[in-house]
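Continuing from the previous page of notes. For each protein in this section, the sequence appears first, followed by its structure tokens. Read the first protein now.
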Amino acid sequence: MTDLAQAIETELQEAAESDELELPTLPEVALRIRDVASDRNVSGTSLAAVVAEDPVLTAQLMRVANSPMFRAVKPIDDLQMAISRIGVEYAANLATGLAMQHMFQATSELIDRKLRETWSHAVDIAAICGVLARSFTDLASDQATLAGLTHSIGVLPILSWAEHNDHLVEDEAILNRVIESSHGSIGTMILTRWNFPPELASIPSQLTRWDREVADSDFTDLVQIATLQSVVGTEHPLTQLDWSEVSAFSRLGLDPDSARETLDSFRDAFDMAREIYH
């Protein structure tokens, strides 16, 4: 890392630790949805009442409930029935992820492009995570999807910071280095403040610990494998990583030597899951 990139990273970390770095907040509708869903006795009716306040979100949930992913035989046009079909907890996590999309926008051309790239990548990771959870683990696929969508949330305040600091905007290569080195710890800080469960909040800061040792497969494993799968066939530096050094594969029961072929067989499922957020 260059001296300038290192200096910027230090500046960002100090700003974050002193609460001078403006961290993103969840959209109001997402906050209300998560608040309602946190009640163990929550019903589809009460969740539908909150979701219905946002017509765009309502339409998106209806589209998902009627999608092939849920093997919809008979179309439904009622929000409460849609939530009943996909499940209250799944609907709440899905709505949170869908509401987040509006956060990935900016005014300057470079920052707006970087935000859109970040969101597009997050959608790819989320889609793969959901499929991996259903296919190889007992982990909840809705939580896995949310883990994928939020794993790079730390990029947002860095890009917001860059909008007001010309030396970052002027050199995209330095900006990329700062994002790569800093977004993990900042992301965990954000998710912790959003009161996400620890198993999701810790993912950004754990993501590059490829040899991590844990007893059972977890959401970090899913995001790690999804990240590696997402760059297959590209020139991304992670394509040089030896998959036999990634402990997540063994916890999911995947042979690193044949994992590429195994994961490639799920390509249609990945594409179907990806359509939810487009």
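Done with the first. The second protein uses the same format. Note its length before scrolling.
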Amino acid sequence: MTKSMTAFARESSTGDEGELTWELRSVNHRYLESFVRLPEDLRALEPAVRERVAARLGRGKLDCTLRHSPVPGMGGNLRVNQHYLLQLLAVASEVGRITGQKVEPPPFDLLRWPGVLQEQQLDLGPVMKRSLALLDEALGSLVATREREGGRLAELIQERCGRLALCASRVRERMPQVMADVRKRILDRLEDVRAELDPNRLEQELALLAQRLDVDEEMDRMEAHVDEVRSVLSGNGPVGRRLDFLMQELNREANTLGSKSSDVEVTRVAVEMKVLIEQMREQVQNIE
């Protein structure tokens, strides 16, 4: 299925660990390039995030942002390091014995002493697990959006493929008249000296001229490329690079047609073809 590279997805979830929100934004890019922004305490998730992104997306520049709003009081609990505090009190008592002065440190001064208060480490396992599960949902939404937009792009390209095929048919229908007009113009110009010319040589020259003006091969290749574009659009997996190459080939045939043209109508059709191809090329730039 054809996929666009431009999409946005946002998924949120609230649980015992607080509120988690993923925002994913993707735009067109030649390769897959991911920028991951995570809360500092969840930085360890980055390798798993990149792995999941690479498994779901083929091309595009992707911004992944995770926001975590913990519930109040979710931080690690504070506790007193009793062993260390007893050591401090013992030292204070020893100082008082040596100096002959009673030393009784205020409790809040003791709490400010480094190492007396310790924060128990929070178990981040549950929040990490839920973050990855939510990321899978966000990636699913992003891919679905890319598929919908890709379907619309494919329809636009298919429509222009049809118009391009009609242009090729118009050129084929027009070419016999073009050849007849060219032959008549040449013979009219040579009317005064035709009696002096070798008829066989004249026919050979006219045949060579017709061969140089003939565009059947170009139209055959044009129609073959159009059929290939349609086939690629119906395939699976990333197709953008293949389509980009086909746009170059279509443009080459349209340029050749224009350079060979000696007829105003055929020139108009060649210009119309180039416009259609450029419109398709712009759409293809956004296809994965």
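What the second structure shows: The mean pLDDT is 85. Residues 78-119 form one domain. We return to this in next week's lecture.
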